[in-house]
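Good morning,

Attaching, inline, the backbone tokens for the sequence recovery test we're adding to the shared suite. The designed sequence is right after.
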């Protein structure tokens, strides 16, 4: 089980909705502060947390400690029951930047140049490309695979040559 402790400071005590998959416990102290602990059971083995997986907002993430090509990185994720990560919010982008590595993500335009799709087939609707990216050029070679990259101007996306070797990040969504 994964537990979260929420601190709700208010004069009117909020009612916690029942009927979810979690167990809620509420404890009130003398000054009107309500401590709420939510515990959720996931259909994923507890072994994930022991094997280097990190939990964030309904997903488990695995950051590699070695380097591989984009395709071999994806193959590794698939062998773990996951896939390369799909970034669909600023919060997720900010969470991933804490790893401070150049990492393959699950985004490519290999099927059709200029049409960037996630590994699940969806089109990109929110992006964090660096200025001037994607530019599809690395000394005459096409750049068809996306990577998270930490540069002087910040943390964003770059299109890279798919046969370069980088770290990668897998994502495994928690079943609702």
């Amino acid at each position: 089980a994964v537990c979260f402790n929420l601190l709700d400071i208010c004069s009117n005590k909020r009612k916690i909705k029942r009927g979810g998959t979690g167990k809620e416990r509420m404890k009130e102290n003398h000054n009107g502060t309500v401590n709420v602990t939510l515990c959720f059971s996931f259909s994923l083995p507890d072994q994930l947390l022991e094997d280097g997986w990190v939990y964030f907002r309904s997903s488990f993430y695995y950051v590699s400690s070695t380097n591989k090509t984009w395709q071999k990185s994806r193959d590794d994720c698939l062998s773990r029951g996951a896939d390369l990560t799909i970034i669909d919010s600023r919060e997720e982008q900010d969470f991933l930047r804490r790893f401070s590595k150049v990492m393959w993500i699950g985004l490519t335009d290999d099927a059709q140049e200029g049409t960037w799709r996630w590994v699940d087939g969806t089109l990109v609707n929110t992006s964090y490309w660096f200025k001037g990216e994607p530019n599809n050029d690395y000394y005459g070679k096409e750049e068809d695979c996306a990577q998270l990259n930490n540069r002087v101007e910040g943390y964003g996306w770059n299109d890279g040559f798919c046969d370069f070797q980088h770290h990668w990040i897998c994502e495994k969504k928690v079943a609702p």
